[in-house]
Write a structure and sequence with these properties.
Blueprint (H helix, E strand, L loop, with lengths): L35 E8 L5 E6 L5 H15 L3 E4 L2 E5 L3 H10 L3 E4 L3
Parallel strand pairs: 1-5
Antiparallel strand pairs: 1-2, 2-4, 3-4
Family: Belongs to the SUI1 family.
Protein name: Translation initiation factor
Keywords: Initiation factor, Protein biosynthesis, Translation regulation
Length: 111
C-alpha cells in the first residue's frame, strides 16, 4: 500500500481541492553506454576515505543493484544514498575497471 504524502493541508472546505505531492516519478534507467558516471575520492571525518560514484541516471532499484555489484567487486562495505554509491576506502581503480568492463561511461573526477 502506498503512503501518500500530503504536506501542509490538514483540512479544506473547497470541494474542488486537489492535494499536491512533491513526489516526482523516477527516471527510466539509461543504458550503460549513455551513463556519464564520475568516480570521486572523498575524505570523511576521522581521516576516513570513501570512494563515491555519482551521476547515475535511473531508478533507485537499479542504482542499488549497481552499488551491490561494486561492493562485491571491491570486497568492502558501502551504501547507496542520495543518488550516489559510497564505497569504503580508496577503490577508484577497481571501480573504473569494473564500470568500463560493463560498458559504462565512467571517469575519475575531483582532485
Amino acid at each position: 500500500m502506498s503512503k501518500k504524502n500530503y504536506t501542509g493541508i490538514v483540512y479544506s472546505t473547497n470541494p474542488d481541492h486537489e492535494y499536491q505531492s512533491d513526489n516526482e516519478p523516477e527516471a527510466d534507467t539509461l543504458a550503460p553506454q549513455q551513463q556519464q558516471l564520475k568516480v570521486w575520492l572523498d575524505r570523511r571525518g576521522g581521516g576516513k576515505v570513501m570512494t563515491a560514484v555519482r551521476g547515475f541516471v535511473g531508478t533507485e532499484a537499479d542504482l542499488a543493484e549497481l552499488g551491490k555489484a561494486l561492493k562485491n567487486t571491491c570486497g568492502t562495505g558501502g551504501t547507496v544514498k542520495d543518488g550516489e554509491i559510497q564505497i569504503q576506502g580508496d577503490h577508484r581503480d577497481k571501480i573504473l575497471t569494473y564500470l568500463t568492463g560493463k560498458k559504462y561511461g565512467a571517469k575519475k573526477a575531483g582532485g
